[in-house]
Amino acid sequence: MFRMNGTVDLHVHTSCSDGLLSPAEVVELAVSSRLEALAITDHDTVEGIGDAQQAARKHAIEVVPGVELSTEYDKREVHILGYWIDHKHAKLNGLLQDLRQSRYERAQKIVDKLCALGFMLDCQDVLKIAGDAAPGRLHIARALVDRGYAESIRVAFEQWLAYRRPAYVERFKLSPQEAIAAVHSAGGAAVFAHPGLTGNIKLLDSLVEWGVKGVEVYHPEHSILHTLRFRSMALRRNLCITGGSDFHGSETGRTPGLGSYGINVKEYQIFKALNNR
Asked: pLDDT value at position 184?
């Protein structure tokens, strides 16, 4: 479901996690793309929300405070999006700090694996690319490209960093229940992110029992059949419909442009009601 003018993009990453653009740059791009609203949903951090909201004050655009949490259930990775959170909430930030530390530990293990495979790479190379953000696989992929070991970020993932590839390392993950509870504790609403990537659609029923309020229906890696199916499932369960581009920056080669996937104004008004439940 490709959306153009009037789009609300509810899945956007910045340089505070593994995106290429700063929060302010993302907002400026959203304005130039004629979006009406966007959600900052960085991985395991809320550091970019304040800067994005400040940048948005100059324009007629809304910034939804959000976060994306990685969890694991039945040996599958399940992502939970949290929206309308209090990004200064102490309990949530304590949890995010633990997750941030786990990212540093994982990055070092991945670099160690790459070195054992013959790559000349140092974790400082990765940390330099990551800047103030906690390092992730995307930063390591950029380091591999910079060193000439991979033609592109996509190739780096496909050959070395993706699940079951030679340098892949599992990372600490919450359970879905823990992630949903953390979002709720910060006054937010939890949404099942890109369900088509989990390989377990039936999980939605359990997530609803645990407190999920919405489903990310529109996502670049969802087929048309996926989109129609998830929309139908959400409507039957009286869940909010969300969607977004999963934007990291056009140069990553992993996601389409900002606002290329999202929800329309009517869907956004329904979604906004989550903030008042």
From this structure: 96
Q: Where are the beta strands (DSSP E) in the chain?
A: 8-12, 37-40, 62-73, 76-83, 189-192, 214-218, 240-243
**Amino acid sitting at position 125:** D
Mean pLDDT, range 62-85, rounded to an integer = 94
Sign of CA dihedral 31, 132, 78, 240: negative
Please determine, for residue 121, whether its predicted confidence score (pLDDT) is greater than 80: yes
**Rounded Cα–Cα distance for residues 254 and 237 (Å):** 31
* CATH of range 8-89+178-276; options 3.30.420.40, 3.20.20.140, 3.40.50.2300, 3.60.15.10: 3.20.20.140
- Topology of domain 96-161 in CATH is DNA polymerase; domain 1 (1.10.150)
Structure confidence at residue 3 (pLDDT):
43
Strands (E), 141-275: 189-192, 214-218, 240-243
User: Boundaries of CATH 3.20.20.140 in the chain?
Assistant: 8-89+178-276
Q: How far is CA 100 from the centre of its chain?
A: 14
Model-level pTM?
A: 0.86
